[in-house]
Amino acid sequence: MKWQQIPLGALQTNCYIVENSDRSCLIVDPGSEGKKLIQMLNNRKIKPLAILLTHAHFDHIGAVDEVRDFYKIPVYLHKQEEKWLGDASLNGSQYFMIQESISVNPADHIIKNEGQMNLGGFEFTIFHTPGHSPGSVSYYFEKAGFVLSGDALFQSSIGRTDLPGGNETQLLKSIHDKLLVLPEETYVLSGHGPVTTIGEEMDSNPFLNGF
Question: DSSP letter at 124?
Fold first, then answer.
């Protein structure tokens, strides 16, 4: 199994392609530039099976409908943000002047619980990691040694908590209880910025000095 980071849109939100040996893949957070993403996938001749959303902020969902409709694949989103896709006041797009308000069709599958998931041969664990937003989740691929943390944990930083439903205390608890307990060599694939590791963030992240 391998992964590829693809920054998309004005905020350079990281979309990730997680690919299996049979050339099937999962798309995580297609935030913008749907045509570019589709062309890249088609050029590589890999087959998307689903779209996983770490959360429903506008810069992570902007290309969802375009990619979903092209490949006829389902979208997965946590239940606490089920209504956010179609609501610009919740997904945050109405507060930013860089683009028009974003409205996306409802998710096909609602994530209600944490735990193991097997999707087309991809095995991973879903962690509920709220704080940046109430329905934020992280996807942990234990065998491959990486976690997709969305906007919970970044290199030397953590997610902002000043948008609807944000809570800094809750975010720090999520990071401590769900992410920092992973093996230190685990790669952290964040929603923005470079890849880091759990160990690096435990050692040097100034926001986590209390842990």
Answer: E
